[in-house]
Design a protein that fits this description.
The structure is a single chain. By secondary structure, the chain is α+β, with helices and mostly antiparallel strands. Helices cover about 25% and strands about 30% of the residues. It has a five-stranded antiparallel sheet with strand order 2-3-1-4-5, with helices on one face. The longest helix is centred in the last third of the chain and has 19 residues. The two termini are about 30 Å apart.
């Protein structure tokens, strides 16, 4: 791991990283997060029993849209022509909804931020759609699980976060 913070110039001013000389490569990033809630809330999500609609469909669309808008949300991120964004959900127990995102691009820079933003916005959408029945929900452990491509090589989280989506 490099000790350099690439978003700062030698004087400490913020800067966008120059990727002009980097090679175009296939890059993939996967991120995850959890939304914890009352068992009855999770059951209503599974049963598609909320008046606002299918929570998982709306959250999936929100996550995909968010990944595509990451450069508008996070300062200094490069706008990227994403090749694919997938959002998945899992239910490891009666109180936990796992959100996973996988983002792919062929570009000069990686898509870790896009995957993290996708998970975050999908989780926030779940909260928004369910808050009327469960204000005690919590969004936890949004984290990068793995990435590949580029000069820095592959990363796989040694201690995996939430259970994998099945």
């Amino acid at each position: 791991m490099s000790g350099d913070l690439t978003h700062f110039d030698p004087s400490g001013a913020a800067r966008m990283v120059d990727v002009g000389s980097k090679a175009v490569t296939d890059r993939v990033a996967k991120a995850s997060g959890t939304v914890r809630m009352l068992p009855a809330t999770l059951q209503r999500i599974k049963d598609r029993g909320l008046a606002k609609g299918d929570v998982l469909e709306v959250a999936s669309l929100a996550g995909i849209m968010a990944a595509k808008r990451t450069a508008d949300l996070i300062p200094l991120c490069h706008p990227l022509p994403l090749d694919n964004v997938t959002i998945g959900f899992g239910f490891p127990d009666e109180r936990t909804l796992v959100v996973e995102a996988e983002v792919r691009v062929t570009a000069k820079t990686g898509v870790e931020m896009e995957a993290l933003v996708a998970v975050s916005v999908a989780a926030l959408t779940i909260y928004d759609m369910c808050k009327a029945i469960d204000r005690g929900m919590s969004i936890e452990r949004v984290q990068l699980e793995e990435k590949s491509g580029g000069k820095s090589g592959a990363f796989v989280r040694e201690v995996q976060g939430p259970p994998a989506v099945t």
